[in-house]
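forwarding from the other thread:

> can someone predict this with cytidine-5'-triphosphate?

sure thing
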Amino acid sequence: RRPDALPHDLAGRRVLVTAGGTREPLDPVRYLGNRSSGRQGWALALVAAARGAAVTLVAANVEEVAPPGVTVVPVGDARELSAAVDSVLDDPAGPVDAVVMAAAVADFRPAAAAEVKIKKLPGGAPPVVELVENPDILAGIAHRTERRPAVVVGFAAETGAATGSRTGATAADPLPDATDASDPVMASVLEYARQKLARKGCDLLVVNRVDQGRAFGAPDNAAVLLAPARADHRADHGADAAQVVAEVPLGPKTVLAAAV
Ligand code: CTP
Ligand code: CA
């Protein structure tokens, strides 16, 4: 479908999306990074803009050109991403209604980036890189006391506690359905996700199962959307109770974006 064939149900809304993967500098030529392509965040920005929202995409090392109608703010590392997010959230032009943190943010960065290239000296010992923790940007947004967007969405990429043994399976066999909660790996993925939702304080968590080469860098994605349980359900199941609000089967990242 052409984008202008979509309903303009987000007209008048301001949406902030982060995409890609941060790169934490080690020295002028090297970084610590991850496998995020930025395509899921790119699809979220595209779909929100096509549905009429004013969209800013904070893009960490994303190769794609800007989706039509989207303002792109390029960033490199986690601290730049955090500063860019804060400046959008505090923009005098108006409050942000929804933020979607699709970016893969490095949890740790080298304590100091070397100013000159780290050299491999003959007979020298391998260098030891000291890491320090990056700020948790999503938790920071969700716990804001001023200008907290009404809707804060996080992503969780989980492999589960153990890898599926796939006894007797060959490489040609299809992977188990990535939203099937009866699969033991998926049950563990969902338990991690439930804890993450409570810890982060967000309103929706997009749970991606990323074992066996899923999601990262792939054109397609499947996800379970997890939200805090309604008040009546929490009374029975505890303060951290969560509920699955949608299961999105493997398909184009734009389809998952529309569901989010
Ligand atoms: N995130 C963030 N800032 C960080 C790390 C993560 O904002 N420093 C956001 C991501 O953009 C994502 C969500 O938090 O929306 C979950 O990221 P994830 O790496 O799954 O969560 P962590 O709490 O870092 O847990 P883990 O130990 O599984 O990496
Ligand atoms: Ca992490």
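The first helix runs from residue 39 to 50. thats all i got for now
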